[in-house]
Amino acid sequence: MTFTLAIVGRPNVGKSTLFNRLVGKKLALVDDQPGVTRDLREGAARLGDLRFVVIDSAGLEMAEDDSLQGRMRRLTERAVDEADICLFVIDARVGVTAADEYFAEILRRRAKHVIVAANKAEGRAGESGAMEAYGLGLGEPLRISAEHGEGMDDLYRALVPLS
Ligand code: GDP
Ligand code: MG
């Protein structure tokens, strides 16, 4: 059995870095079609013995004529609706922002399952930001580093009971 995981969160928290790590660079490149606007990028992911579909809300970084906030909301709602599990990423070095609170509210209303990940937490970085993420009320945050591959074992353990 497989499942769909949507990576959601405000721009620049490391969603695409995590997407690339989960699908592998080769697949991500194949999936990237220059000149084609694909708001939700989808890939085949593997983590340990888990195989699943992962969605990256790639369109958030593209300049469009309507407001970023409106785009963020619509894209997130689409990703959430398509997904069995949402991985809500925050930047552990920045802590919880107003935009994060806004996403948390959407996820509380719509998501079937939410895992919170405080990213950019390699080494001992971002400990207080990760603590702040508890306050989102979406469960115990994982401390991960998408760039350095840290915390992937914790992500695996969080996904297994939901898969
Ligand atoms: P997105 O906008 O949420 O998709 O974020 P990106 O994946 O494009 O990453 C935004 C920036 O954060 C880039 O400069 C990444 O290199 C950086 N980044 C992503 N993950 C990590 C991480 O685990 N640690 C650190 N220090 N930087 C990261
Ligand atoms: Mg991105």
TrEMBL record:
Domain called EngA-type G: residue spans: 3-163
Residues involved in GTP 1 binding: 9-16, 56-60, 119-122
Transmembrane domains' residue ranges: none
Highest taxon of source: Bacteria
Subunit structure: Associates with the 50S ribosomal subunit.
Protein role: GTPase that plays an essential role in the late steps of ribosome biogenesis.
Protein name: GTPase Der
Source organism: Paracoccus acridae
Gene from which this protein is expressed: der
Shown chain mapped onto the complete sequence: 1 to 163 of 494
